[in-house]
């Protein structure tokens, strides 16, 4: 037992100094991804949204921004479009989703519900 204490102290000192001889390997960071379903809207222009959802319930323009709003009995989706560069077509840079009562809801679920609504027409 008396012999194991100095070995334990020595191994703790080596570990603290990083002198274990074992390289430290860290896992790569997780990939950055757009939430599943949001990629159907984010980065797309107004034509793509109209193809996906149909004509918007509201189309508001305040140059250079544009907001398209789609509403159903399930949710309301606001898509905000801004040009990525001067003279370029505005694309969706942000979306909000809420229930008809105004409570925040999952954006991807709202996109799926609105997509199904257009397919049913």
UniProtKB/TrEMBL annotation:
What are the protein's UniProt keywords?
Signal
The domain of life for this entry's organism is: Bacteria
Signal sequence span is 1-18
The organism's lineage? Answer: Bacteria, Pseudomonadati, Pseudomonadota, Alphaproteobacteria, Sphingomonadales
Quote the protein name from its UniProt record: UrcA family protein
């Amino acid at each position: 037992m008396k012999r194991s204490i100095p070995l334990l102290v020595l191994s703790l000192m080596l570990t603290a100094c990083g002198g274990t001889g074992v390289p430290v390997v860290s896992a790569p960071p997780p990939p950055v991804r757009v939430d599943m379903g949001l990629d159907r809207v984010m980065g797309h222009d107004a034509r793509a949204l109209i193809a996906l959802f149909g004509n918007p319930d509201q189309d508001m323009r305040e140059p250079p921004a544009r907001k398209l709003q789609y509403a159903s009995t399930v949710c309301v989706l606001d898509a905000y479009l801004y040009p990525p560069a001067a003279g370029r077509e505005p694309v969706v840079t942000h979306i909000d989703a809420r229930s008809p009562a105004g409570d925040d809801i999952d954006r991807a679920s709202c996109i799926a519900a609105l997509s199904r609504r257009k397919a049913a027409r």
